[in-house]
Amino acid sequence: MTTGDGVLAEAGRRRSFAVISHPDAGKSTLTEALALHARVISDAGAVHGKGGRRGVVSDWLELEKARGISITSAALQFSYRDTVINLLDTPGHADFSEDTYRVLSAVDSAVMLLDAAKGLEPQTLKLFDVCRHRGIPVLTFVNKWDRPGREALELCDELVERIGLQPMPLTWPVGEAGHFRGVLDVADGSFVRYQRTAGGATVAAEERLSSAAAEAEAGEDWVRAGEELELLAESGGEFDAQRFLAGEATPMLFGAAVLNVGVRHLLDLLVELAPRPTPRLDADGEPRPLDADFSAFVFKVQTGMDRAHRDQVAFARVCSGVFERGMVVTNATTKRPFATKYAQQVFGQQRSTVDTAYPGDVIGLVNASALRVGDTLYAGKPAVRFPGLPSFAPAHFAVARPTDLSRAKQFRKGVDQLGSEGVVQVLTSDLRGDAAPVFAAVGPMQFEVAAHRLEHEFSCPVRLDRLPYTAARRLADPAQRSLVDSGRRSEVLTRTDGVDLALFDDEMAMRILLRHHPDLALEPLVAEG
Ligand code: GDP
């Protein structure tokens, strides 16, 4: 048994974070580079790695292939400098969905990954909004500095102007994007020069030069880097840990994940600066102490899309206590016991089952068909229940109808089930009636999953007709409903949690209506719950 002090010590060693980025910014590359560094640096003697960076994640991919489901969207665990790092994946690309956002309810910090040539991009902005709303501190890594891109100061300005986030650079690039000579380490003013390695298969060797040596070596680039940093310090860019934890400012690094440049520095920052797990608030707003009995909440459930693989994996983040495989826990939603015999180490370096896990860790529960996203699991007494699922601003809408009207009953049952699991949000209105609910989603993939499950689990094939809406706001005052319904390109629908959503074809349609009715109270929708 691990004692209470033992749990606190183990929790203190955990850093659980996610990378928020737009597709192509280099998230996969950075993930591999982080795991490579952690392994190479932690395993004494294995400086050149075993089989290079791809080897680190290959077990992961093989498992994915064998199971026929996307396991890459779970978590990777590795140790670095006596710290256990849990990197939770935020699926992007085509499967960008509410799942992507929900992962952020299971992390303690986030790394915002920017492409040096592109800066803030749409998916990054959406994910950042969720971090801000949930109070998740954000570190920033500017990637691809080895390629031509924007100026460092310009990227800093963009953060301030577009999202009100103060950059606090801890390194500053020497040489503009595309002519990466190294970085100025703000902590001691030294010049860190990297040696390029072919294909990034090994960690980049670093060499530190004093300021005088740097000037001789990098000349104007060095002088310019120093001047730019001074400019930034004058405008509030000095490092301040409190402002980072409060979500007002972001420590910033420059690098190139593909060359492993800047990656070690990022790992060090995670260890030294990123918050460790803290007591999670339960549904009554009471903090659950880290050393209380085991508790966790399910933030993701993955069902095999292939009919032959009906197995279901539930991913839960441990919030308190020690998880020991085989323990029987209670599902707070159903009050039923759940046996954890098949708990898995979540796809770290080995494909082993997990025997113990601590606050901050992610456990994968196999054959978990009884578990739903948002469920709380706990052991011992008293019972605990964490707040349910947050809902996010949907951007895609479709009317759902059963193709066979004689299946109306199964249809209703299935829609209720999918709504309560958060597969899609379910919206209705008196005008539309119950027979044709509207599905709302963050990403269109959610519709495919919903249609697939209605057909295969509820034997109720459905037709989905897309609606033209792209913008949603919360309607604060139900009395104003008719104002929105009277617009030709808008309507109000009520979500199962009782929130009235005002939907518009686009932002322009919304602005036009607001011009006619300036007292219309519309509020932004981010993460509630
Ligand atoms: P993801 O979609 O965010 O997971 O992006 P990937 O990791 O797949 O990277 C997208 C592309 O950018 C790939 O071709 C990478 O090789 C490339 N890339 C990633 N990091 C860097 C970098 O630091 N420098 C350069 N030049 N290319 C990079």
Automatic annotation (TrEMBL):
Molecular function terms, GO-annotated: GTP binding; GTPase activity; translation release factor activity, codon nonspecific; translation release factor activity, codon specific
Protein name per the record: Peptide chain release factor 3
Family to which the UniProt record says this protein belongs: Belongs to the TRAFAC class translation factor GTPase superfamily. Classic translation factor GTPase family. PrfC subfamily.
Domain of life: Bacteria
Protein's cellular compartments: Cytoplasm
One of the GO biological process terms: regulation of translational termination
Gene Ontology cellular-component annotations: cytosol
Database matches in Pfam families: EF-G_D2, GTP_EFTU, RF3_C
Record function comment: Increases the formation of ribosomal termination complexes and stimulates activities of RF-1 and RF-2. It binds guanine nucleotides and has strong preference for UGA stop codons. It may interact directly with the ribosome. The stimulation of RF-1 and RF-2 is significantly reduced by GTP and GDP, but not by GMP.
Originating species: Saccharomonospora marina XMU15
Primary location class: cytoplasm
PROSITE patterns in the record: G_TR_1, G_TR_2
